[in-house]
From TrEMBL:
GO BP terms, alphabetized: regulation of DNA-templated transcription; response to amino acid
UniProt GO cellular component terms: cytosol
Secretion signal span: none
SMART domains: HTH_ASNC
Matches recorded under Pfam families: AsnC_trans_reg, HTH_24
Protein known as: AsnC family transcriptional regulator
Protein species of origin: Rhizobium altiplani
Length: 152
């Protein structure tokens, strides 16, 4: 595997952008000690190499009425390709699911689900997850407080 990051300068650029992705190129260049044109060349190379995969705005989920976070672990009835595809395809279409991870252990998937409350979450489970014939069990933990959240 080839190394995508050339040197410490790339790491400095990434660190600054992870702190503030809205930095104008001239300010970014100044912070890392490069000319604006050299900084922009490096930035474009990092984007082209898919190291920088995009820029986003993080919005408070409560704006959409989502005040409850749940972590749902799901076990499929079988790990056959058709059931895996059925489940993953369904999950991709559900706005409530912010993240879905294929995991090891006694469960197959871990989902981060947002809802407006317990009634809304119950509706999500009954009308979406439980209706999938491939789902065997669902176990949910509700997030009481987020101690640390870091986006990379």
């Amino acid at each position: 595997m080839t190394q995508k990051i050339a040197d410490d300068m790339d790491r400095k650029i990434l660190k600054e952008l992870m702190s503030d992705a809205r930095l104008p190129n001239n300010e970014l260049a100044e912070r890392v000690g490069l000319s604006a044109s050299a900084c922009l060349r490096r930035l474009r190379r990092l984007e082209d190499a898919d190291i920088i995969q995009g820029y986003t705005t993080l919005v408070d989920p409560a704006i959409d009425g989502w005040t409850m976070t749940a972590l749902a672990s799901v076990r499929l009835s079988r790990q056959h390709e058709d059931e895996i595809q059925m489940f993953e395809s369904a999950v991709r279409g559900w706005d409530e699911v912010l993240e879905c991870h294929l995991v090891t252990g006694s469960r197959d998937y871990l989902l981060k689900v947002m809802s407006s409350g317990l009634d809304d979450y119950e509706r999500f489970i009954k009308e979406k997850i439980a209706r999938l014939k491939c789902v065997d069990t669902i176990e949910t933990s509700f997030v009481m407080n987020t101690i640390k959240a870091r986006r990379v």
